[in-house]
Design brief:
Blueprint lengths: L1 E8 L8 E9 L6 H4 L5 E5 L7 H4 L27 H8 L20 E3 L20 H21 L13 H4 L1 E5 L2 H7 L5 H24 L4 E5 L8 H7 L13 H24 L4 E5 L1 H10 L8 E5 L19 E4 L2 E4 L9 E3 L7 H11 L5 E2 L8 E6 L1
């Protein structure tokens, strides 16, 4: 019988005192964290929830301080004050942060994987008004190009690039993490009714399924599929669609957006099970992000947060501190007055960072809950350590 105590520092919380207590009681060593999450490489696809710099590297957008202030001390290409869920998951796997595919600077190393996620991306193909041209299908095409070119370089140059590129077997043994769909649903509400949004979900997921099959053909066998969170609880959506109090639920979230997210997740779950049955040599894990984030918002004070819906970085003050005309870090003249969207004093008290994305503190909480294994199908709580997040 083995007892292991591990202490991992978190982002600063109230009174600058915070830790994650990881207590593992295991009878057999193979059930340890390092064994369960032992993958040689990680391939990540998605949107801003896991983009580590692709949209910024593409020159489509830019982020300025205070982005990155909590952990990187400067903008890192992430739409956050610090680390994302994917960063915390990679850290738990004892893996380095993923370099974005489009970042050519900083001597990127892709030996342990690559990140193709780009902010604003959708499952459906992009159109001329899309924030990001890098839809799910295009990200997969980028991955195929990455794989093909990497193997070419390895075969032609001997050992010259071994330290920087993954070998062939990493593509079948690696983990494919996918978090996308939020922009398909949230964006649809700007031009469609609730019924129309709900009716569009099957076609969105048909495109997603086709993408999964492409990854499978390329050798992918291990998949983590994150569902979408409670979109109606984002300040951006509340500001736009929640001006009528009757449209809000008991937590102040837009009911229609959360209803659509739930149906999307229900069908995504069914698709994941179908894919697993159709390709029994694959390992598909469906991760219920919606339940984790909903629990966090409903019980925010219990987990040490002070503001469940209000953006940390924005303008306007309570209740949302969000204005569609100005984004975090920008300075603009609004109604004849120069205004700067500044960060709050302590982002660890907030769940929402900029009206759309979560703070590092909230991402830390979500990742710790994912790693309990109890929010996944199939669940792996009997094989994984439990992360207990303590905030003081």
């Amino acid at each position: 019988m083995i007892w292991v105590f591990v202490f991992i520092p978190m982002a600063p919380i109230v009174n600058n005192l915070s830790i994650v207590l990881l207590f593992i009681f295991i009878s057999f060593l193979p059930s340890s964290l390092s064994t369960i999450l032992k993958y040689p490489a990680i391939i990540n696809l998605g949107d801003s929830n896991s983009d580590t710099g692709n949209l910024i590297s593409a020159g489509i957008e830019s982020v300025n301080p205070p982005y990155g202030q909590t952990y990187f001390n400067l903008p890192s290409g992430r739409y956050c004050d610090g680390r994302l869920i994917v960063d915390f998951l990679l850290d738990a796997m004892d893996m380095p942060f993923l370099n974005p595919y489009l970042d050519s600077l900083g001597l990127p190393n892709f030996k342990k994987g690559c990140n193709f996620a780009a902010a604003g991306s959708t499952i459906l193909p992009a159109n001329p008004t899309s924030v990001s041209p890098f839809s799910f299908d295009l990200q997969i095409s980028q991955f195929i190009r990455f794989k093909t070119r990497s193997l070419e370089l390895l075969s032609k140059t001997g050992r010259r690039y071994e330290k920087y590129l993954p070998p062939l077997d990493y593509y079948s043994k690696g983990l494919y993490m996918i978090d996308i769909g939020q922009n398909d649903i949230a964006g649809a509400f700007y031009s469609k009714s609730l019924d129309q949004v709900l009716a569009s979900i099957p076609s969105i997921l048909e495109t997603f399924e086709a993408g999964l099959k492409r990854l499978y053909v390329e050798g992918g066998r291990n998949f983590w599929i994150h569902n979408t969170g409670p979109l109606g609880c984002l300040a951006q959506n509340i500001a736009k669609f929640g001006t009528d109090p009757t449209k809000l639920d008991e937590f102040g979230c837009v009911s229609s957006h959360n209803q659509a997210a739930k149906l999307f997740n229900l069908q995504l779950h069914a698709l994941s099970n179908k894919f697993q049955a159709q390709f029994p040599d694959s390992n598909v894990t469906y991760v219920d992000i919606f339940s984790i984030k909903s629990n966090l918002i409903a019980n925010y004070s219990r987990f040490g947060f002070e503001n469940p819906l209000m953006a940390c970085c924005g303008v306007g003050g309570a209740p949302l501190n969000y204005d569609t005309r100005i984004t975090c870090g920008q300075t603009k003249v609004i109604d004849g007055i120069s205004v700067t969207a500044k960060a709050c004093n302590d982002s660890s008290e907030y769940i929402n960072w900029d009206g759309i994305h979560y703070t590092e503190a909230a991402n830390n909480f979500v990742s710790s809950q994912i790693l309990t294994g109890k929010y996944s199908d199939p669940p792996f709580s009997d094989q994984m350590p439990f992360f207990l997040s303590l905030k003081f």
